[in-house]
Amino acid sequence: MNIVLKMSILNIVILVTLAAAASGVTAEKHFVQAERKSSITFECSTKKTTECQLYKYTNSRNLILGRPNPKKGNFKIRDSQSCIIDGNDLKMYDSGEYHCVADTDYEVYYLNVKEKTSELLYNDKLWRNNSENVIEPNEGANVNFKCRTYMQKTINDGLTFEWSENDKHLKTYSYNQYGHGLYNPYGRSYNTRQMDDLFESETDLLFYLEDSTKEVELVDDSANKERNILEGEEKQITCKADGFPFPKDIRIKKRIAEDGNLPQWEVISDSSTRINVSNSGTYICEARNDDGNGTKMENYILSNKLSFRNYDRELAVISQMLLDMNNTVAELQQKLQQQLKLE
């Protein structure tokens, strides 16, 4: 009975295919991508149909479902009239090529069920993908990474792990997870790619050694590099420091007075590395490393100095001072005259 049924279904497929070819109708091809545990719909025919079969092609053609057996596995014919097939709670192994055959319709679906991105672990803790991270040098010259995949494949299924260093291929391994000791240099990136017959998943990482600040520079970022500031103009100055991560303890200061031979400085910014200045003055910035846990370098490293002159504003200030002095002299003269009259 089973043999007769299979032959009958095979004949139906052949007849439908031949009929479609004879009438000039070609099968529509659809490319469907879905995540694991999600749902999809194969809309083979919305018309009332007698026949409705779904086949999956691997090495051979396999009948998944059809009337009078409308449900199998994750797939189900929606109703008894049309040929609309729903796939629910999809699994990785549901990926593949599907052929849907109705009375006069023939549709081909290429389904790719994707799993969540593989994860990279550092010292058995999840590494943040595609971001910069810091590995403390006192943890040793070698670091241990492990790649964890969700492809649900085994070694015999052909799953492989490829490791690369700065885009240079290292090795390929066939394990569900692979731990590898990698030398810990400055600014070196590593990449792992996992592949099977249907798709590949790639994870990138970039890490740096902790490197203390050694140099600090104050630069003029404004378009006009002249040290003279025109009336209504602002100069943009930026404090730059080396080291990784970038120093959190950084500030910009302005000289306000002289105390003997020592200049006095006022902090004008301790939250931003870039400020705008419009007044005459001499500026400096300083920085020291701070790892966020209260551990800081003992001393600040000082930058070069930048001096600007706003002659228009200085002239306005001097003019105002002279005017104030004239007013003061006039008041004193008036008081003196009043005193002389009293005498």
From TrEMBL:
PROSITE patterns reported for this sequence: IG_LIKE
Keyword Signal: yes
Gene3D superfamilies documented for this protein: Immunoglobulins (2.60.40.10)
Signal peptide from the UniProt entry: 1-27
Residue ranges annotated for the Ig-like domain, each copy included: 214-303
SUPFAM superfamilies: Immunoglobulin
Keywords: Signal
Protein's name in the database: Ig-like domain-containing protein
Organism: Strigamia maritima (European centipede)
